[in-house]
């Protein structure tokens, strides 16, 4: 696992350059991208690079790693992905896959049909989850429905106007889906990410800290700002 600590803007730029290198090497690359605020700056940077002709996503396939099972209109994780990236790049719409309650049972088959994931982009959340794989999720887990833990619901409460409004369940790729990718990029910015990052890097590789399973793959690059790295 390679850890890179930079100012946030520089970390995002470095991560974007890594994505660019992967696509230049394999134009038909398969990307798996998590939703949420930590990944959003990278998507915006990639869209900017695409608009400037520095990168093309025309042959790329993209899978959304996780989303809510039931959420108010406009509150699904696919919504900012569409607004920030899909509508702002040359990616071909039929090559974009959004996880939902109708397709999650065949999601793994579709990933396999595209040749597997070349790059997974994630960020550790509350209790060091990745995607919506909560503590207790097994390493060999694949795409499934996940009941959201109280810590996750508290973390998301401000987005939904109160913890009581946070969806109870989510759909998510499993830990095995994410760690089986050829490469992984992990993004974490801000002081609130410091503890999840610590457990990700130094926790035991068991189900207590799901993100700690990212210690197992060989090609993981973690991009942090100083606040997120403050407990290392």
Overview of this protein structure:
This protein has 232 residues and is of the alpha/beta class. Helix content is 30%, strand content 17%. It is built from 7 helices and 10 strands. The strands form 2 sheets. A 7-stranded parallel sheet has the order 1-10-9-6-2-3-5, with helices on one face. It has a 3-stranded antiparallel sheet with strand order 4-8-7, with no helix packed on it. It is globular, with a radius of gyration of 16 Å. The model has no long low-confidence stretch (mean pLDDT 95).
Secondary structure elements and their pairing?
Layout: E1 2-5, H1 8-25, E2 30-33, H2 40-51, E3 61-64, E4 66-68, H3 78-84, E5 96-97, H4 107-113, E6 119-122, E7 144-147, H5 150-160, E8 169-172, H6 175-179, E9 183-188, H7 194-202, E10 220-224
Parallel strand pairs: 1-10, 2-3, 2-6, 3-5, 6-9, 9-10
Antiparallel strand pairs: 4-8, 7-8
Helix pairs in contact: 1-2
* Separation of the first and last Cα atoms: 14 Å
* Total beta strands: 10
Q: Report the biggest beta sheet as strand number plus sense, adding barrel if it closes.
A: 7 strands, parallel
Give the CA-based shape: globular
Helix content: 25-40%
Which whole number gives the mean pLDDT?
95
Task: Output the radius of gyration.
Answer: 16 Å
Q: Report the portion of residues in β strands.
A: 15-25%
Helix/sheet category: alpha/beta
Task: Count every helix, treating DSSP H or I runs of 4 or more residues as helices.
Answer: 7
Which residues form runs of ≥5 with pLDDT under 50? Answer: none
**Strands side by side in the biggest sheet:** 1-10-9-6-2-3-5
The string of secondary-structure elements, in order, is: EHEHEEHEHEEHEHEHE
């Amino acid at each position: 696992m390679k850890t890179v600590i930079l100012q946030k803007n520089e970390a995002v730029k470095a991560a974007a350059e890594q994505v660019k290198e992967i696509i230049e090497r394999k134009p038909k690359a398969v990307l798996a991208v998590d939703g949420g605020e930590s990944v959003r700056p990278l998507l915006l940077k990639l869209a900017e690079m695409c608009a400037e002709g520095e990168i093309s996503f025309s042959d790329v396939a993209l899978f959304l790693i996780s989303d809510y099972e039931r959420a108010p209109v406009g509150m699904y994780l696919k919504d900012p992905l569409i607004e920030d990236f899909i509508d702002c790049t040359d990616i071909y719409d039929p090559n974009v896959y959004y996880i939902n309650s109708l397709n999650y049972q065949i999601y793994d088959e579709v990933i396999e049909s595209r040749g597997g994931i070349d790059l997974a982009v994630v960020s550790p959340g509350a209790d060091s989850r990745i995607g919506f794989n909560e503590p207790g999720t097994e390493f060999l887990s694949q795409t499934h429905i996940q009941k959201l833990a109280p810590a996750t619901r508290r973390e998301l409460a401000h987005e939904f106007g109160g913890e009581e409004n946070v969806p109870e369940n989510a759909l998510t790729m499993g830990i095995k889906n994410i760690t089986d990718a050829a490469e992984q990029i992990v993004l974490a910015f801000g002081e609130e990410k410091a503890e999840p990052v610590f457990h990700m890097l130094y926790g035991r590789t068991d189900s207590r800290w799901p993100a700690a399973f990212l210690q197992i793959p060989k090609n993981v690059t973690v991009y942090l700002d100083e606040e997120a790295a403050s407990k290392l």
